[in-house]
C-alpha cells in the first residue's frame, strides 16, 4: 500500500484527499492525480492529522496563502495560540505554520494538529536549537529525533534548510543584509563552529525516509534568500537554488512530496525571473514565496510592498504565498495586522488567478461589480473579501438603513455619482442600452478560494479569540520573515 499521496498517484490511485481537492478546485480528480504524480502539485496531508480538510498547492490550481503563527518565551500560551489559529483560518489562510520558539511547544503543536482544518507546517530546526541550547550544539541525531517526533504528531509539512552548503557561505560576503533566514543563519553558524557540512544535508536521506513513512511534505527552505533589493538574484541565492533542485529530485525518489521556498526581497522586474528559474531548476515543483517585497523603503506598510510582488509572483506561476503583515521587520503582529496581511494576500492570490485565466476566477469580481453598479449595498458587502470592513467604512458616513437603498455614497454625493448619472442616461430614451448583470456565482466554475466568502473552514473547535466582539484584540502572531 502506498504510504504517500505521490506514491498513490504514481500507482494510478485517486485518494480520498485527491477527490476532496478536486471538489474544492472544481477540477477532474484524474487531473489532480496526474499533477501530484508528476510532482507539480502537493497535497500536504499527514495521516495523523485527522481534522484536516485536504487542499492542494500547485501552479495549475488556485493560488494559496499561508499565515505564520507561534509563541516566544515571553508571549502567549496554549489558549492564545489556538486563538491565533482561529484568527488565521477565519481570515482566509489556506495553511498555517507554527514557528513557535517558546514553552510548551509539543502541547501547542499537538493542539494545532487536533483542531486545524488546514495543513500545519513547522520548522523543526527551531525546536532542535531550543533543546540543544544553541545552534552550535545541535547534532544530527537530535535533528532526526525532533523531525520524527513532529511527523508522528501529525505535522503536514516542514521547512528543512538542507540547501545551504558550506561552499555557499563565502558567496554571501559583500551582501548588504547577509543571511536573513532564521534557519539559514542557524545552519551557517553551525557549519562555521563545527567545520562540517550542513547537518540537515548530511542526513537528508534519513529525513526523506521519515517523511515517506508519515506522508510529510518537504518545504525546502531558502536559507540564502535576499533580505534586501541589493541582494536579490545574487550568486549565493541561485547557488542554493541549484542545490534545492537536486534535493527535490532526491525526495521524489523516496515518494515524498516537495515544494520549494523562495525570496524574500526582489525588485519588480526580477520577480518573474525568480519564479521561472525555480520552476526550471526544480522541475516544476510548487514554488512557495515570502512576498516578495518589491521595495525596502516602507516599514509599517510591508503588507503592501510584498503584496505587489506576491501578485506578480502568482501570475508568473508561484503556487503559494506566505503573507506579510504591516509589522514585518518591526515586531510581532496583532490580530488587526493579521487581518490586514491576509486581506492583502488574498487579494494578491486572487488577482494572480484572474490574470492567469483560472476557470471562473473573475466571476466573483463581476458579481461584485454588478452589485456596485446597481447600488445593491447589502449584496456588495456580502460579496466583499472582508464584509465587516466594507460595511464599516460605508457606515462611517452614511450609517442609516435608508442609505442601504441610496443611489450614491459619500465620496461623490447625489449630484456627482457617475453610476447614477450613467443609469439615468440609460433609462432615458437615448441610444445607450442597459447593461448585462447576470453573473451566477452558484454556477461558477471557480475554485472555492476564488468564491465568497473567505475563511469557510470549520473553526468551531478552536477559541474565537473575540473575533465577533473585539476585532482589534491583541493576539500576536509570529513574524513571517524568520523561517
Q: Mind explaining what this structure looks like?
A:
This protein is of the alpha/beta class. The chain folds into two domains: 5-355, TIM Barrel (Alpha-Beta Barrel), CATH 3.20.20.540; 361-433, no CATH class. The chain contains 18 helices and ten strands. The chain has helices at 5-10, 16-25, 29-37, 78-90, 105-115, 124-132, 140-153, 182-194, 199-202, 204-214, 235-253, 268-281, 302-316, 335-355, 363-373, 377-383, 387-395, 418-427; strands spanning 41-42, 57-58, 64-69, 95-98, 120-122, 157-160, 217-220, 258-262, 287-290, 320-322. The strands form two sheets. The protein has an eight-stranded parallel β-barrel with strand order 3-4-5-6-7-8-9-10, surrounded by six helices. The protein has a two-stranded antiparallel sheet with strand order 1-2. α4 links the parallel β3 and β4 (95-98). α6 (124-132) packs across α7 (140-153), α7 runs parallel beside α10 and α15 (363-373) packs antiparallel against α16. The relative contact order is 0.13. Residues 465-482 have low confidence and may be disordered.
Looking at this protein, list some descriptive labels.
TIM Barrel, 483 residues, disordered C terminus, alpha/beta, single chain, eight-stranded parallel β-barrel, 2 domains, two-stranded antiparallel ribbon
Concise summary:
This protein is α/β, with parallel strands linked by helices and 483 residues long. The chain has two domains: 5-355, TIM Barrel, CATH 3.20.20.540; 361-433, no CATH class.
Amino acid at each position: 500500500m502506498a504510504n504517500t499521496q505521490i506514491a498513490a498517484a504514481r500507482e494510478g490511485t485517486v485518494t480520498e484527499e485527491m477527490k476532496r481537492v478536486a471538489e474544492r478546485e472544481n477540477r477532474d480528480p484524474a487531473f489532480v492525480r496526474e499533477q501530484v504524480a508528476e510532482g507539480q502539485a502537493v497535497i500536504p496531508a499527514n495521516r495523523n492529522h485527522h481534522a484536516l480538510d485536504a487542499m492542494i498547492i500547485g501552479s495549475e490550481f488556485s493560488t494559496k496563502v499561508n499565515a505564520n503563527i507561534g509563541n516566544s518565551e515571553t508571549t502567549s500560551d496554549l489558549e492564545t495560540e489556538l486563538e491565533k489559529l482561529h484568527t488565521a483560518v477565519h481570515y482566509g489562510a489556506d495553511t498555517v505554520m507554527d514557528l513557535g520558539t517558546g514553552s510548551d511547544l509539543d502541547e501547542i503543536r499537538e493542539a494545532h494538529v487536533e483542531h486545524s482544518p488546514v495543513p500545519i507546517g513547522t520548522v523543526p530546526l527551531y525546536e532542535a536549537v531550543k533543546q540543544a541550547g544553541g545552534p552550535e550544539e545541535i547534532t544530527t541525531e537530535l535533528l532526526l529525533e525532533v523531525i520524527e517526533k513532529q511527523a508522528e504528531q501529525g505535522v503536514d509539512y516542514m521547512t528543512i534548510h538542507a540547501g545551504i552548503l558550506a561552499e555557499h557561505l563565502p558567496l554571501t560576503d559583500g551582501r548588504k543584509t547577509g543571511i536573513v533566514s532564521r534557519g539559514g543563519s542557524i545552519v551557517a553558524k553551525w557549519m562555521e563552529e563545527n567545520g562540517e557540512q550542513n547537518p540537515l544535508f548530511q542526513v537528508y536521506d534519513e529525513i526523506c525516509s521519515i517523511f515517506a513513512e508519515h506522508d510529510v511534505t518537504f518545504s525546502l527552505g531558502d536559507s540564502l534568500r535576499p533580505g534586501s533589493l541589493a541582494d536579490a538574484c545574487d550568486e549565493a541565492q541561485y547557488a542554493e537554488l541549484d542545490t534545492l533542485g537536486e534535493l527535490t529530485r532526491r525526495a521524489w525518489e523516496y515518494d515524498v512530496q516537495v515544494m520549494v521556498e523562495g525570496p524574500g526581497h526582489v525588485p519588480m522586474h526580477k520577480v518573474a525571473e525568480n519564479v521561472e528559474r525555480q520552476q526550471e531548476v526544480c522541475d516544476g515543483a510548487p514554488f512557495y514565496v515570502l512576498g516578495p517585497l518589491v521595495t525596502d523603503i516602507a516599514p509599517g506598510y510591508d503588507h503592501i510592498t510584498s503584496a505587489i510582488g506576491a501578485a506578480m509572483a502568482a501570475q508568473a506561476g508561484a503556487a503559494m504565498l506566505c503573507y506579510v503583515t504591516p509589522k514585518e521587520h518591526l515586531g510581532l503582529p496583532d490580530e488587526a495586522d493579521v487581518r490586514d496581511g491576509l486581506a492583502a494576500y488574498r487579494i494578491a492570490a486572487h488577482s494572480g488567478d484572474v490574470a492567469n485565466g483560472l476557470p471562473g476566477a473573475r466571476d466573483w469580481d463581476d458579481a461584485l461589480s454588478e452589485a456596485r453598479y446597481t447600488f445593491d449595498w447589502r449584496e456588495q458587502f456580502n460579496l466583499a473579501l472582508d464584509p465587516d470592513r466594507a460595511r464599516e467604512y460605508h457606515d462611517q458616513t452614511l450609517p442609516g438603513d435608508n442609505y442601504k437603498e441610496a443611489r450614491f455614497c459619500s465620496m461623490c454625493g447625489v449630484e456627482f455619482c457617475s453610476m447614477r448619472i450613467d443609469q439615468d442616461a440609460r433609462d432615458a430614451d437615448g441610444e445607450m442600452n442597459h447593461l448585462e448583470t447576470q453573473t451566477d456565482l452558484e454556477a461558477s466554475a471557480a475554485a472555492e478560494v476564488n468564491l465568497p466568502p473567505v475563511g469557510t473552514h470549520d473553526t468551531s473547535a478552536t477559541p474565537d479569540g473575540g473575533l465577533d466582539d473585539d476585532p482589534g484584540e491583541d493576539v500576536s502572531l509570529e513574524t513571517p520573515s524568520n523561517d
